[in-house]
Each structure stands twice: as C-alpha cells, then as structure tokens.
Amino acid sequence: MQPKRGTRPELPEPDEESAAHSKRVANHIRQYIKDQGGSISFAEFMQQALYAPGLGYYVSGTQKFGSGGDFVTAPEISPLFGQVLAKQTVAVLQQLENASVFELGAGSGTLAATMLRKLSVLDALPDKYFILEISADLEERQKEYLENEVPEFAARVEWLSEFPPEFSGVIIANEVADALPVERFTKTDGQLKQDRVKAGRVRFNWHQDDAPENLHNAVGDIEKSIGYRLPDDYTSEVCLALRPWVADLVHCLREGLVFVFDYGVSQKEYYAPDRSDGWLRCHFRHYAHNNPLVLPGIQDLTAWVDFSTLAAAAVDSGAGIAGFVSQAHFLVNGGLQEEIADFQSLDVEDQLELSRQIKILTLPAEMGEYVKCIGISQGDITPPSAFHLYDRTHTL
Ligand SMILES: C[S@@+](CC[C@H](N)C(=O)[O-])C[C@H]1O[C@@H](n2cnc3c(N)ncnc32)[C@H](O)[C@@H]1O
Prior knowledge:
alpha/beta; eight-stranded mixed beta sheet; 16 strands; globular; binds S-adenosylmethionine
C-alpha cells in the first residue's frame, strides 16, 4: 500500500469520530491485556487492533482505501494492474478445465471489478469468481460495489467463509500476507526477547520478556538458514501465521496457480544485520510511519513479507514455484505495453494521469521494486509470461 503523493510531514490528528472509535478499541485492548495477565505478544496486539470483532481496523465500518482513506493499493491506483493480472490469469485458466478465480481479501472490490471486466473482454469469464474476505463489513461493501460497478457480472461472484476444497484455477492475494499478525523480537546480550505490549496509564508501551519456545524455534530456524546469528540490539518480526496460511492455500488448490503480491524481500534481505528495526509499517490518512502502538483501530498495521519463508512453506506443502518477480517486471512482462497501446491518441490530461499511474506501479522507489509477486503452482502448469524474464526465485 502506498501513501498518496504529497503525504503530510507529520501524523495528522484524527477527527472526533475516529478518535472516539480509537478510544473504544484501546479500551477493548486494555481489557484484553488485563485478561491475559498484564501483557500480550505483538501478534495478539496486531490481531486485536486489526480484527477485534466489530472494532478492529479491518472489521469496523470506516473508509480505508483510496484518497478518502488511509492508503492506496495497486488496483486502486490504476486498472492497469488488474488488466495485466487478468491476462496472466487467462494464460493459466486456458490450461485447465472447469477453472475459476478465487480472490483473498478483496478490499473495496476494485480488483474484482477490473478483473471481471477484462476477463469478459478476453472472452474468458469463469462461471465463478470466489472471494474470501475476513471482514464482514468489507464483504458488504464489496457486494454493493460490484453490484453498482459490474452488475452484469455480479451474479458470478460468490463469497466463501473458508477455503474451497479441490479448487481448480487461479488464486489471487494482493496485500493480504502483509496484514497477517507478526511477532516482534529483539536480541539483547545474546538473548532472544519477545517484544510484548503493556497498557500504560495513557498509552500502550513495549515490554520485553523471555521469548517463548515457538519464537525461539522460529528465530533459530532463520539464523540457521541465513547462516549467521542475528546481532545484539537487533529488532525484527517473524510471521508465525504465514506458513499455515500458505499451507491452507496450497492444500485447497488441486490444480492451478496462486499469485501472491506484497511488499517483501528474500529472507537474507529481511534479516540483514543492518536492518535492525524490522519491517513494520503503519498507515493513517496517507501518512506512513512505524509506531504501531498509537491510533489503535484507526490505522493500518502491516509487516513486509519474508518471501523465502513463503516459498519454503509452499514447497513443503507440495507446490512448485512458478516464479518470483518485482511488480514492475510482472507488469512489463505481463503485457502492460499492450494495455497502453492507445496512449498517443489520448488527450494530454489523460496521458499525464496514465503516466502518473504507471510511475507509481512500476518505479523502483514507488511500488515497482518494493512489491513482489510470487507464483505458486500446483499440477502441470506452464508459468505465464509475467515470470518469463527477471525471475529471481534463485534469491529466495
Ligand atoms: C491491505 S487490504 C488489501 C485489499 C485488496 N486486496 C487490495 O489490493 O486493494 C487487506 C485485505 O485482506 C483482508 N484480510 C486480511 N486477512 C485476511 C485473511 N486471513 N483472509 C482473508 N482476507 C483477509 C482484509 O480484510 C482486507 O480486505
């Protein structure tokens, strides 16, 4: 997710209604912390701040996406993202029988609408476009949005409450993996500490405790795989929910391909010795910062993705890796050029707007390099063109 251009230089003040909501969420988390004995892991804090029933950031009824919200994602920035993804999807659907599309965490529903339009143009509309959305509020918004935007295709869209068994087709997850709760840890005097959260009189505070066994094991595995011990005074995150999430994805896929897009890097980059303050990123009203303990319930919390662990989880679950590319390479390899073939015939204003969108999607210092796409394949699938050039699977 991207803050809008011209981002404000300091954290904006929430309006009265948002501040009141945040207070309710803070009270809920305070009580939760009390019930848990006085402190909780950061993963529990993130889970509550984002998903506490009726209160969390993703499940309460506030606007999150677009210029009136907190951040913009690739499908919100430009339909070009979904148009190229639809072409890549068709290249997979054509290899399968009775294949469908299944999107996880569909946000505002923008990507689904763009995909359905483009799949129709390509004469490749599947009978079903499934969505699995964790937030009941967003599911309602997606239904309304799709009925308004693409009424002719709305009947094909079906919301699921769990992964479909024996799915055949294409699964899409754009900026979902970075919304999975992460553990935060610090190395101090050669000891591994778990960064936990306590409730102070007015705010939430960090508190360190001995790391539990599962965190010890996870960090031990990371150190084994990168080949060195993490240094002292080193803080980072590990997403213990990532492996089970990937395993669920792979196990539901009988045949086909999963496109996972997210901000992320290889494990070596994730745990580089100089990356000593981790990968948390928070978004409030297009202001990006790294203090997750403020504005509970009204700011988005994300952590970049360790794509090596994601790939290993897929392979351990029996899948293959079709490719791993930057978002820029995905789009350029995948047919972006054809999507803008009429550029010269547009009036200047539209040319400027299209150029702006393409820059945000592809420039290295915008989303082009920070966001990656990994293809996870099941069965005998020829990787689509998006993975043909600049594949960096070998870096994982
Ligand atoms: C950052 S938003 C991205 C939305 C959309 N994919 C886009 O690109 O605009 C994350 C989305 O994932 C959903 N989500 C988070 N965790 C999920 C999970 N475990 N399963 C399904 N959806 C999830 C959120 O409710 C939200 O819709």
